[in-house]
Amino acid sequence: MSMKMFIYADNAATTKLDIGAFEAMKPYLLSEYGNASQPYSFSRKSREALKESRKIIAECINALPEEIYFTSGGTESDNWAVKGMFFSDRNKGIITSEIEHHAVLHSVKAVEKMGCDVVYLKPTTEGIITAEVVSGAITERVGLVSIMTANNEIGTIQPIKELSQLAHKTGALFHTDAVQAVGHIGIDVKDLGVDMLSASAHKFNGPKGVGFLYIKKGTSIIPYIDGGAQESSLRAGTENVALIVGMAYALQKNCQCMDANINKVRELEADFIGLLGISGNKGIIRNGGNDTLPGIVSLSFGNGDGEAMLHRLDLRGICISTGSACNSGKSTVSHVLRAIGLDEEYAKGTIRISFGKDNTKEEVRYIANEINKIVIDRG
């Protein structure tokens, strides 16, 4: 293979914009630029596009259109869920986990400084937040439980349905950061029983800078951004119609093709694991347990250097990550790997490869070969 090769295997950090989503967005950037809040006929198309996008997104997660609130992305959605609940009732505490995305952890830390009681739950070594630890921590004083649907670094899928039922037994609300999961595995908010769910378009082939927060009808939450009456007066600001249209298009397409995408990505993942010969290699650990998101492969190499491996693969035209992309530039061990109790020598040698629907078997073979070469050089 030529050295001009470029392989993108960091789909958990962001995904390629779907060309159909881009085409769907174009009219609202160029000709149909009316402000959806204005009453005149020129704004009608923008208003209709917003309404249709809300309906499409709601159908994809089995929600009602009026339960979908558009935001600037997963980070804002998480901030709103956490802070909105705290400000609605400052006497209630929050339960979350040690392996949440920083958008949740830092939001929780912010309200903790304002006097909120917070409990951080420890995961198992596979990264699972069990029903036992939740029921052991929850009391009538807890107002919100926030546990992610699937971990962005190691891919572990959580038993959300079971955990939300436990939260509701004591009257707490349940929020899930589903940013990594929406568009990749089936999400049914009614079946999961969640009160709030965060999502971000750029994780499922939509544009960056747009996401949504599902808020179950009847849930009392204060506005996160004050101003105009957009989003049922809960999230002010002129709607970015083009991005919202792109998000709805991309999510609908991924949901329609979900089974085929999952099968393809699982196959690539299995090929990759087979080519690396992980099962018989005591020097390599795969993190995240048996129930992980399709395509996310977190590998830890004993006495390795994840940062050095990332750069060596980058020189070979391969994009991967050393864990969470939000941690890039910092060579400290990620909070997720610490929380699951991974040995320091393995934690420092951790990389995350995340395959998507556009990756090929040839690419998988090339990545595995290059990693094997690096590991042999090192050995």
Quick summary:
This protein is α/β, with parallel strands linked by helices and 379 residues long. The chain is built from 14 helices and twelve strands. Helix 1 runs antiparallel to helix 9, helix 2 packs parallel to helix 9 and helix 10 runs parallel beside helix 14.
Strand and helix order = EHHEHEHEHEHEHEEHHHEEHEHHEH
Which blocks of ≥5 consecutive residues have pLDDT under 50? none
What is the number of beta strands? 12
Fraction of residues in helix: 40-55%
Q: What is the molecular shape?
A: globular
Main sheet properties? 7 strands, mixed
- Mean pLDDT comes to 94
**How far do the termini sit from each other?**
25 Å
The fraction of residues assigned to DSSP E strands is: 5-15%
What does this structure look like?
With 379 residues, the chain is an alpha/beta fold. It has helices at 19-30, 44-60, 74-88, 102-113, 131-137, 160-169, 189-192, 230-233, 241-256, 258-276, 306-315, 335-339, 344-347, 361-378; strands at 7-8, 68-71, 93-97, 118-121, 142-146, 173-177, 196-200, 211-215, 284-287, 296-301, 318-319, 350-354. The chain starts with 6 loop residues before the first strand and ends with a helix. The model has no long low-confidence stretch (mean pLDDT 94). The radius of gyration is 21 Å and the shape is globular. It has 14 helices and 12 strands.
